[in-house]
Specification:
Elements lengths: L7 E8 L9 E9 L4 E9 L8 E16 L2 E14 L7 E12 L5 E7 L2 E10 L3 H7 L1
Antiparallel strand pairs: 1-2, 1-8, 2-3, 3-4, 4-5, 5-6, 6-7, 7-8
Length: about 140
């Protein structure tokens, strides 16, 4: 079987309550193979916290896109990944935090869902294409 990139699409998505001060905002760049629905990518969670804890890199995002066909909700996006962060002083070292997310969207990637990185559950947030807060605020 020949290896082809014809079915691969790059999507940038932002999720979170962008108008709410201090709310965690998830930004992702995902490669989606439309032939089998597999997803791979990376992301970042940003929040108004004292440095260096205001930005968390989400690596090794993997998952699936599935067709739904229920009214305006046409796709479901299930993701998991890893956040590696340094411990707060006086502790020394790093810790691996599991990341998961689930979104239900229309064909334009506009919808709602949640993301989780223990101990944080960010629920019922909008998601929209683009990496800017105005894109998500307009879709909410």
């Amino acid at each position: 079987m020949a290896n082809t990139f014809e079915s691969v699409r790059v999507v940038t998505l932002t999720a979170g309550n962008c108008g709410m001060p201090g709310a965690p905002i998830l930004k992702m760049v995902l490669m989606i193979d439309q032939a089998d629905g597999t997803v791979q990518g990376k992301g970042e969670i940003s929040q108004a916290l004292a440095p260096p804890y205001g930005e968390l890199a989400v690596s090794n995002i993997t998952g699936q896109v599935r067709a739904m066909g229920f009214g305006p909700a046409t796709m479901s996006l299930a993701l998991k990944g890893t956040i590696i962060t340094t411990l707060k002083p006086p502790a020394i070292g790093t810790v691996e935090i599991p990341f998961s997310a689930f979104f239900v969207t229309d064909n334009d990637w506009v919808g709602r869902g949640y993301f989780n990185y223990p101990p944080n559950d960010v629920t019922d947030v909008p998601i929209a294409p683009g990496l800017t807060a105005p894109a998500v605020a307009a879709a909410a």
